[in-house]
Amino acid sequence: MVLAGTAAGAGLAFPRESVYKRPRGRSAVEIPARRPDVAKFKVVTPAGVSYSVPGGGYEPEMEALSPLGAEIVEIAAKSEDEFVAAARDADALYAKGRPITKRIIDGLERCKIIALGSVGVDSVDVAAATARGIPVTNVPDTFIEEVADHAMMLILATFRRLVVQDRMVREGRWKEGRPQLLKFPRLMGQTLGFVAFGHVARAVAMRARPFGVRMLAYDPYVEELVMSQYGVEPASLSEVLQRSDIITNHAPSTPEAHHLLREEHFRLMKREAIFVNTGRGATVDERALIKALEEGWIAGAGLDVLEQEPPEMTNALLKMENVILTAHVASASARFDPARRRRVGAEIALALSGRWPRSCVNPGALEKSGLRRWQPVSMERGPNS
């Protein structure tokens, strides 16, 4: 590790910091070490980690932060102790690329917000942040259409055995394509089952409805009247698994949803069933899924998420012909990345200006945060609504 020096009297070496500011009329540049006499607010983030292209800068985030005199400081720290030492005086933490543990959070002396550019917040110890009165924010609504498109793509590609059909043509097995598909029913009239029925699942339901499928959904946190608006029948988890020809999982990664789908659940599914997951890998017991595919309890799977990402090359899923895999890319699009990064900047800017953020996943922290409520209209999320 390259170190900038040693804190006076502390005897602790600090990791090198790289400071990003949005320059006037020029492209993004890096300047060495934060200068406290210039920047009003310090926003720290792990170095060398980007949601998009490495070295792409922070222009979208800085649109909201520059007017406040804030700077983004990248911390090149390998250990928690090094990160804590460099982040101690941070006004905000832009969380990406490393777990934000209780140890790190307890070392933050003046942090007003921990912001993520993803919907999942499992990389942050939210309970520790709540205990400290630090709001944790995510970006729950800038990628809905992209993920719904991807889920629908996996449903169609897996159901119609697209990858296998493509391979048959490339390998000179032209005549084998039609006999394979003659074994399977048409999509119209099939039953599509949703595990969780949040924003993405609802967008998938809108895309699937014109195909003539029947739809069921299990979500104990969503009112039945919400489901009926999308032509979806509310059902228990076991009903969804037993009745559906295609099961699409949209459950978030929460402690309650960890391994939500286990061996006993895959045994409930039809032998002809297709399983699609664009939610989170941790919601599925992957060993049970592999067993279900190997032993023919279900017919196939389309997966954008896995328990371990990237997977080991020994993962059995990588060798299965009846499995379509993508690299946790469902949310990716040219629009999505700058949109979610602007949201991160906006959330941090709200907290630095003393106001509640828009999308707080731990609203219990808001009353202890010292920030003030400000929204004059409903944001349809959390205590601001």
Detailed description of the structure:
- With 385 residues, the protein is α/β, with parallel strands linked by helices.
- It folds into two domains: 190 residues, NAD(P)-binding Rossmann-like Domain (Rossmann fold); 182 residues, NAD(P)-binding Rossmann-like Domain (Rossmann fold, 3-Layer(aba) Sandwich), CATH 3.40.50.720.
- The protein contains 13 helices and 16 strands.
- It has a seven-stranded mixed beta sheet. A seven-stranded parallel beta sheet has the order 12-11-10-13-14-15-16, with helices on both faces. It has a two-stranded antiparallel ribbon with strand order 1-2.
- Helix 5 crosses helix 8.
Summarize the structure.
With 385 residues, the protein is an alpha/beta fold.
**What is the number of strand segments?**
16
* H-E order: EEEEEHEHEHEHEHHHEHEHEHEHEHEEH
How many separate domains make up the residues?
A: 2
Helix content: 25-40%
Strand content: 15-25%
Mean pLDDT: 88
The unreliable regions are: 1-16, 23-34, 381-385
- How would you describe the shape? elongated
Give the N-terminus to C-terminus distance in angstroms: 46 Å
Radius of gyration: 24 Å
According to CATH, the homologous superfamily of the largest domain is NAD(P)-binding Rossmann-like Domain
Report the major sheet: 7 strands, mixed
Q: Class of the largest domain in CATH?
A: Alpha Beta
Class from secondary-structure proportions: alpha/beta
